[in-house]
Amino acid sequence: MRKVFVFCIFVLLLYSSIFLLHGENVFFVISEPWQKIFYRQKQTPVSQYDVCEDLKIENMKLKSYRAENETLKEHLDFLKKSQDKFVLANILGRRYESGFNWIIINKGEKDGISPGLAVVDKKGSLVGSVITVENSISYIRPLLDIHSFITADIINFSDDNNFETTSGVIQGEYNLIVKMKYVSLNQKVEVGDIVITSGLEESIRRGIIIGEVIEINKKPNAIFQELIINPLAEQNLRIVSVLLSAN
């Protein structure tokens, strides 16, 4: 009799559960502990994947920092040898507007930068010159820009160790090539000659490397020869040095 009574109570409780839960969540209630165990087991591989991704990201960051430190070291090595006063700057971006090509850096007037100063890469090759300065940023006009004009020299050495200076003006064209214009036809120039700044600009010293001659064009009846110059500055720049005026 007692067993019958217990069975009736069990059936009554089961019926009540079905009635209260509308019969749709009974299986969920009964199986919930097993679901939790199964869910935790499935989560473990996902967590391991996330850890691997985090490690990859950290590794990439470390490689980026290492590359940046190497670049900074090369800048400092060159600047120490040249004894130039300088300001190191990061490139924030580039802007093309109304035919003008600018490089934007994160240093400005408060850092001692002023218009006309030379900007070089980690090996000391000329990147361009500062055009506009704001309080905390500056705009650089690269050599390839058609509005860039910088006086330049080529030093030619003869067999008897005498030298002759060939002068001209460096100008970019269509953001693709750099030309040296207004070079006298009487001047001897050879492919491979190195072009440097002349020092005639007020804020750009003499001797900064611009590039090398890769082509010589002499047109009939022209009074000047035109040289195609291969700029030696890096193209994919992240850090530059602004050379401060010695005055």
Key attributes of the depicted protein:
about 250 residues, alpha+beta, Thrombin, subunit H, six-stranded antiparallel barrel, 2 helices
What can you see in these coordinates?
- The chain has 247 residues and is an alpha+beta fold.
- It is built from two helices and twelve strands, in the order ααββββββββββββ.
- The chain has helices at residues 2-20, 26-82, and strands at 86-97, 100-105, 118-120, 126-133, 138-142, 149-157, 163-173, 177-184, 194-197, 209-217, 224-231, 239-243.
- The strands form two sheets. The protein has a six-stranded antiparallel beta barrel with strand order 1-2-5-4-3-12.
- The longest helix is centred in the first third of the chain and has 57 residues, at 26-82.
- Residues 18-24 have low confidence and may be disordered.
Per-chain topology:
Blueprint: H1 2-20, H2 26-82, E1 86-97, E2 100-105, E3 118-120, E4 126-133, E5 138-142, E6 149-157, E7 163-173, E8 177-184, E9 194-197, E10 209-217, E11 224-231, E12 239-243
Report the oligomer. Answer: single chain
CATH architecture of one domain: Beta Barrel
Major sheet size, sense and barrel closure? 6 strands, antiparallel, barrel
Number of helices: 2
